[in-house]
Specification:
two-stranded antiparallel ribbon; globular; 27 helices; mainly alpha; 2% strand
């Protein structure tokens, strides 16, 4: 009894209990509420939303066709993103191509941008007159843009590839940077060709990174909302995310919740199967002896390879930003033959231009949205990092396998939940009259709680890594000196790991302010956010305003990302 009492009074035990309760409310609670909301009170599923989605006359349009479209887009996005990311990683890390550092730096930018930035740029260039509204640049020049290039699966997939290949590049480049030159040199000394070295040594070595890049691009592709909504919905190209959004936004909550659960299941199953693929296999390349990374001379192919890498970077990074910027100065949407103006940035309300809407820096609604977005990002960053830090500290100090395992599991689960499904889960928990928790729908705090939950996996891993750099001996010395848990965290761990934790908080801020999928179901006119305002303006055909807001979000994201990486002391693999 004494032992049990002592354990309960142990500060780490109490802290672990607090962390478990918070994770239970933020992670397990919304999912449980989502599932409970779809179960009929009488237990009869014959006339339920589950039957409607899976086995009814409406299931084809409600679930199966959107599922097929989601899988088509996700597989194509994953394959192309991995291929392009691997190519660039090879060029930057292992080849002797010129301008490698510049190519590597520019290749990381697309992932720091909002996912809808490239979709808006695509629409500005390739939009045709099929659905009305202002045509894109090419159509405005008199060119006939086919429907398949303007709308549907092809543009949705290509815009997602242009965004997510950057993530694959970062993962694969890091793996290639760890490939010792001694392995390549030994293979070349045996007379192996460059192709043999690449396929027999380099490729198997980075197989886990290739798979990770593929799985992450797939998960993002299957759940992305912005690109399918902007480039697919106008022609009724539905994915699971857009169908889910349509159901909930029209008040069809139960069917929307079912689609949210199915979307979570699809993403989780694919990620699980992918992780099982490399389970138990060894891909070790570290031999215990440091070796200098070796570059592979390209010979006569150097010019061609460099040109291809440069073209890829130009098309995915430089060109979209140039298009977005130029369109914000055009008097007419996507037309450069009618002069340029600063109205969409600084102009006052004019009834003859865009229905009297002022420029973004004179628009009270957008100014409010900017303040709300920054406040939202800061609140989420602080909340997520504090929770992640506490969870990481409990893992560091607790000897309970059950507590540590439960915290680790709950901290990972949000990674499996697509953003729009997370939003639906929070509506089910905090927006339902039957929920025991207060109704927060329509308030700023439901956004903050959802943002914290979505950011837990990253915040936890960042905090765990930062704390891991602080020697246990320092804390043990403080324990022997009688320092309390609060004193040890506040005076030793937090200051010594501050750079890593602050850098992690800044990256949480970036992912929060540029994310549309998570908040699109939760935002109301009383609490506008920049990402949602961009989507609204794009839907209503106000191209200049939508692109201007996107550039503001992109600028914030890129600047904060660069500062965060410098603060964390991160070096890119090609710069080492």
């Amino acid at each position: 009894m004494h032992t049990l009492t002592r354990r309960i009074k142990n500060p780490v035990t109490l802290l672990g209990l607090v962390v478990l309760i918070l994770l239970g409310i933020l992670v397990a609670g919304p999912l449980a509420s989502l599932v409970a909301s779809t179960i009929p009170a009488d237990g009869d599923f014959t006339d339920s939303a589950w039957r409607d989605a899976l086995a009814s006359p409406m299931s084809e349009n409600l679930f199966w066709t959107p599922l097929g479209n989601s899988l088509l887009v996700a597989v194509a996005t994953a394959v192309l993103s991995t291929a392009l990311g691997a190519f660039l990683a090879w060029v930057v890390v292992l080849s002797n191509a010129p301008f490698r550092k510049l190519i590597g730096l520019l290749a990381t930018i697309p992932f720091a941008l909002p996912s809808f930035a490239i979709a808006l740029a695509w629409s500005s260039v390739f939009r045709n007159d099929r659905v009305g509204g202002s045509p894109g640049i090419l159509a405005g020049m008199g060119l006939d843009v086919p429907d398949w290039l303007a709308w549907g699966a092809v543009p949705v997939t290509l815009t997602l590839v242009a965004h997510y290949f950057s993530l694959s590049f970062i993962i694969i480049a890091s793996a290639l940077a760890g490939l010792g030159g001694d392995l390549l040199s030994a293979a070349q000394l045996t007379g192996a060709s460059k192709l043999r070295v690449a396929t027999s040594i380099a490729l198997p070595t980075v197989a886990p990174a290739l798979l990770s890049g593929f799985l992450l691009a797939f998960a993002e592709g299957v759940s992305n909302f912005a690109a399918p909504a902007l480039l697919g919905l106008p022609v009724r190209f539905q994915t699971l995310s857009t169908r889910l959004y349509g159901s909930i936004s029209t008040g069809d909550l139960e069917r929307g919740y079912v689609l949210a659960i199915l979307l979570v299941v699809v993403a989780a199953v694919i990620l699980y199967l992918g992780n099982r693929t490399t389970g138990g296999r060894s891909f070790a390349v570290v031999t215990g002896k440091a070796s200098r990374r070796q570059t592979i001379p390209l010979g006569k192919a150097k010019g061609v390879v460099t040109a291809l890498a440069g073209l890829l970077i130009f098309v995915t990074t430089v060109l979209p930003l140039v298009v977005l910027t130029l369109t914000t100065f055009s008097r007419r949407s996507n037309r450069f033959d009618d002069g340029f103006t600063l109205h969409y940035w600084f102009g006052e309300s004019d009834p003859s231009i865009t229905h009297g809407m002022a420029g973004v820096f004179r628009n009270d609604q957008l100014i409010q949205a900017t303040g709300t977005t920054i406040g939202y990002g800061i609140a989420v960053a602080i909340g997520a990092v504090l929770l992640g830090l506490l969870a990481a500290y409990v893992i560091r100090r607790s000897k309970s396998k059950v507590v540590n395992g439960t915290i680790s599991f709950l901290s990972y689960v949000p990674f499996l939940i697509p953003g729009i499904a997370m939003g639906a889960a929070f509506i089910a928990l905090f927006g339902s009259a039957s929920s025991p928790l207060p109704n927060l729908y329509g308030t700023f705090w439901i956004l903050v709680l959802a943002g914290i939950t979505a950011s837990i996996p990253f915040a936890f891993q960042t905090s765990k890594s930062a704390l891991g750099q602080v020697s246990h001996e320092l804390e043990e010395a403080a324990v022997l000196a009688g320092a309390s848990t609060r004193r040890r965290i506040g005076s030793i761990l937090a200051p010594l790991s501050a750079r890593g934790i602050t850098g992690g908080a800044m990256l949480v801020f970036v992912t929060t302010v540029r994310d549309l999928s998570l908040v699109v179901l939760l935002v109301t006119p009383a609490i506008p956010l920049l990402a949602v305002e961009t989507f609204r303006y794009a839907e209503e055909g106000f191209t200049q305003h939508a692109n201007a807001i996107t550039l503001i979000i992109a600028l914030i994201s890129v600047i904060v990302t660069i500062l965060a990486r410098k603060l964390q002391g991160q070096q890119q693999p090609w710069a080492q």
